[in-house]
Specification:
single chain; about 270 residues; mainly alpha; Serine Threonine Protein Phosphatase 5, Tetratricopeptide repeat; 2 domains; two-stranded antiparallel ribbon; 2 strands; about 0% strand
Amino acid sequence: MRKFGKFLTKGVRAFCFLLLALMFSNVWLAESARRDDDLFFSTERVALKPSLATALSERVDGRTQRDLAEFSRHYDRGFLEYSLGNLDSAVQRFSRARRVWPEFFYSDIAIALTYEAKGKYSLAARYYKSYLNKLRSYSQGKYGISAPIISGLSSGPVEDYDYAYSAVRRRLAGYGISIENVRPAYSPNPLLSVILLLVLATASYFGVFRFAVPFLKKKIREKNPPDGFWVCRRCGALNTVLSYVCGSCGEGDITRKKSEPGTETQGKDNDDRK
């Protein structure tokens, strides 16, 4: 019995030691995951390489270089405003950079981080979702010439989509938001906006000048015919008041017939005779 008690005591100690090891392991894993998330959602990770940002801001020879230079100025200025606590200005700068180069998905995560710092978690979630959609397109090779430029400008290697999705889902879940139910932020294309305005202007022109104006003119002409004439409602032709039937289409002027005195009485007499 004494030997069995010693064996049992050793077993309990081993079990307790294993339990403590598992607890410390879970704590270490949780702390490691937290550090990874802090690094993933840091502004330093999504910033441009300083040397490339400086080089881009000085290149103005060519359309692409000018666009990249404009993008770089707005993007870097956004991080400066963010570091100074000017979050509204930071959002404006990041949004301008996003309009210049929509494919650069780190602009979306920069805007999301700024809205998150402002406490606007629903807006942040929309930009996180937009970031994930663009990252997926990048991973699927849909960005063509933009892909090597994005990887070249990034401070580190571009992250895996599945890992990014899990990280964003965990972060939004902490705010009670499900990433599956979030609509991505949409940035309208200026060219599409111009085309839409032209289509609306053309439709308005035809609607007003081809249909509304002629219709109103016709109604005014019907109600104000020249003295001694009436206007046919079907074809718009002028007819003398001596005729109750239009000489062009054969339509009768029923309204004028009914409004003349004696017409209704004659109609009643005819009904009584029947």
